[in-house]
């Protein structure tokens, strides 16, 4: 099923969503929704969001603000980029220990506690390279977004560009979706296609897809925070 998207000027594939959409409130210019952005690396997508928020504020106001950027890796470029945009940036690394499951749970609990301390209302994953546990997803489900560099459900996982090139397809793209208990399996909100050129390698394809991601993700976040993502009969629509 395809529906018009209005301000996004594209079409959205509507998929079934069984869980309740739990955005706590609609963001406004006077009281923007408080976002946390989780990163693991360069933070180029996060920086695109910060620039979008700044430009939107100058143009009349933005209904969301990035309250904090959290990285699970120290000394990555994304932290410096956040600071350059006057956005608080923090590092919460995986704790030491021998039990990987316990370390994972403790790490996510530390992130969750910090998000609650800061009054975060929604979480934006932007190049965050850890798979979240079911418990963390359950706490934030309906308020947890991700962008993936392929046209899901095709080519999920951490090596989408490599898999696209190996498959020999002529079109890839990016997908904004709700995060669920699986890997890149959550309800799709919006997608945009990107052609695969004959001379592409992983780096060139990644850079072209990123350019599209950096435009699409902020626009979807606008719709999300303005309350224009609606659940009707188990489906997501953009009003």
How would you briefly describe this protein structure?
This protein has 239 residues and is an alpha/beta fold. The protein has helices spanning 44-58, 77-84, 100-117, 134-140, 160-167, 202-225, and strands spanning 2-4, 11-13, 33-39, 64-71, 89-91, 122-125, 144-148, 171-178, 188-195, 229-232, 235-238.
Describe this entry's structure for a reader.
With 239 residues, the protein is an alpha/beta fold. The chain folds into 2 domains: 1-21 and 146-225, Formyl transferase, N-terminal domain (Rossmann fold); 23-140, Rossmann fold. The chain has 6 helices and 11 strands. The protein has helices at residues 44-58, 77-84, 100-117, 134-140, 160-167, 202-225, and strands spanning 2-4, 11-13, 33-39, 64-71, 89-91, 122-125, 144-148, 171-178, 188-195, 229-232, 235-238. Helix 1 (44-58) packs across helix 6 (202-225).
Protein topology:
Layout: E1 2-4, E2 11-13, E3 33-39, H1 44-58, E4 64-71, H2 77-84, E5 89-91, H3 100-117, E6 122-125, H4 134-140, E7 144-148, H5 160-167, E8 171-178, E9 188-195, H6 202-225, E10 229-232, E11 235-238
Parallel strand pairs: 3-4, 3-6, 4-5, 6-7
Antiparallel strand pairs: 1-2, 7-8, 8-9, 10-11
Helix pairs in contact: 1-6
Family: Belongs to the GART family.
Keywords: Purine biosynthesis, Transferase
Protein name: phosphoribosylglycinamide formyltransferase 1
């Amino acid at each position: 099923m395809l529906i018009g998207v209005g301000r996004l000027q594209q079409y959205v594939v509507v998929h079934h969503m069984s869980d309740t959409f739990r955005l706590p409130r609609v963001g406004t210019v006077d009281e923007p929704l408080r976002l946390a952005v989780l990163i693991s690396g360069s933070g180029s997508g996060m920086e695109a969001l910060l620039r979008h928020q700044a430009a939107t504020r100058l143009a009349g106001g933005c209904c969301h603000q990035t309250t904090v950027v959290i990285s699970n890796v120290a000394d990555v470029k994304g932290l410096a980029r956040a600071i350059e945009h006057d956005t608080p940036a923090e590092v919460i690394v995986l704790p030491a220990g021998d039990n990987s499951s316990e370390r994972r749970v403790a790490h996510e609990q530390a992130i969750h506690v910090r998000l609650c301390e800061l009054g975060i209302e929604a979480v934006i994953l932007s190049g965050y390279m850890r798979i979240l546990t079911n418990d963390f997803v359950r706490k934030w489900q309906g308020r947890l977004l991700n962008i993936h560099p392929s046209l899901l459900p095709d080519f999920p996982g951490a090596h989408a560009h490599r898999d696209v090139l190996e498959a020999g397809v002529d079109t890839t793209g990016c997908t904004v979706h709700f995060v669920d208990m699986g890997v890149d399996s959550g309800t799709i909100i919006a997608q945009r296609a990107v052609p695969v050129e004959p001379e592409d390698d992983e780096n060139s394809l990644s850079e072209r897809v990123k350019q599209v991601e950096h435009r699409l993700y902020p626009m979807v976040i606008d719709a999300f925070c303005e309350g224009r993502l609606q659940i009707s009969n188990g489906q997501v629509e953009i009003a």
